[in-house]
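so my prof wants the structure for this chain in the tokens format not the other one, which i didnt know existed until like an hour ago. anyway here's the sequence
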Amino acid sequence: MAAPLPPLTALRAFDAAARHMSFASAAAELNVTPAALSFQIKSLEAHLGAPLFRRLNRAVELTDAGRALAPDAKAAFETLTNGWRAAQRTQDHHSLTVTAGPAFTAKWLAPRLFEFAQEHPEIELRFSASLRLMDFVRDDIDVAIRFGFQADPDLYAVPLAEEWVTPVMVPELAAKYPTPADLAQAVLIVDESINFLDPPTDWAAWAAAMNLPPLIPNGPRFSQGDHALDAALAGIGVALGRRALVIKDLAEGRLVAPYGTALNTGARFRFLCQKGAETRPQIDAFKQWILREIDKTAAIADAMTLLKRPALK
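here's what i got, hopefully its the right format
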């Protein structure tokens, strides 16, 4: 039969002291007096029958027993904290925290958020524009919008619209470059944020799919897709516009895609959340709104002739 665990308050005091290696700092974190914290640790040592700390003149250090306990104590309290946060979030139906890449946030989400806010004034939206990997519980994230080939099978995932790229430019440049072959004379803007796609989805791939001579990019290069499109909107040159990032500008005439031919990326944006969380009212409302917004511009996407990416050597 397993030995009974010591009091949780004593373990919590030990965890704080082991992390800080200071009774005073640990007491401040737990909002107790140093004397109260010391009492809890002494009671834990009595429960174990061995010291966990060596008390030095102005410092403490862990004993062998303390070093054995510290990592698991820390992990246990982190797990408890995450579990408690997750339980609290199930009771929150009025706030929604979304993470998406900077380009998707700037070009897709931000221009449409007023409409969502009008439809759902009861939901408080928070955004984290980031591409870093996030933990839904640790980072207090409800929904992630991520671009790639596959979704984590442990998550609830809804693939969004098929993603493609097509040359986009301001109307004035479309008149200057009426045919795809004319792009050999254009300033070609490079979006390096999709360099990870394999096979490549770049100017060389688009030219090959169109049976054109190779197109050599000669314009500015950007690490973010929204910056590349901002350059195209400024009339600097022609960009390979990604569907999700460019569709609103196409719908409203700021940019045009004069050739009607797009290169399929093979990747997609996906709506992601923890399994089971998709039924929470604010998460379901956000998902349904995104799908409706995509449907509004479906005619533009449907008019595109999609080409498969060639396997370039």
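also thought this was worth mentioning. The longest helix spans residues 64-90.
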